[in-house]
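Hey, I was hoping to borrow your eyes for a little while. I've been puzzling over a protein and I'd love to understand its fold better. The fold is given in discrete form, as structure tokens running alongside the sequence. I'd be grateful if you could look everything over and explain what you see. No rush at all, and the record is pasted right below.
>
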Amino acid sequence: MSAEFIKLVSELHRERFNMHLANLAHNQTPCGIFFGFELIPNDSAMAIQALKKISLNLSCVIVIADIQAEALKNLVDVPVITLEDFEHFGEENFPVKPQEVFVPAPLADLAFFPYFKRCGIEIIAPTYTKDQQQYFLCMMAYLPQLYDVHEMLASDESKKSFPRSN
């Protein structure tokens, strides 16, 4: 496959991810962010600030162990909870249960995806979003055919007829 086609698919993926984030911000959907196996996530405060900067309703930061929670509580202005705290959602003075959870390191924390699913929480990672998932999977299923069409339209004559907009 051509580098140009791979770039096109990458741009589509990034665009659908950004659209999903915009929808979450617009709807003020309660979200969380999960830092899994890192003992003390070095860039956690920056990741949290980035989510808040786009006006996401960040209800909590989720970690595995108490030692992580203690390390983060002084760095962030969002409630920090552990996986064990999930049973307390809905109680007074406890954060709102997130509907979707960001996982900045999806490959490292893949083992936790089924746990979040069982709790009724969707995972958001650069490689996964709930909205438009079927569209993207369908596109990936027909990737060879899409590539063929892309190559047919890559000729100089096609570029004159169908100019690419940026």
User: Anything to note?
Assistant: The radius of gyration is 20 Å. The CA atoms of residues 35 and 63 lie 5 Å apart. Strands lie at 30-35, 57-63, 80-82, 100-102, 122-124.
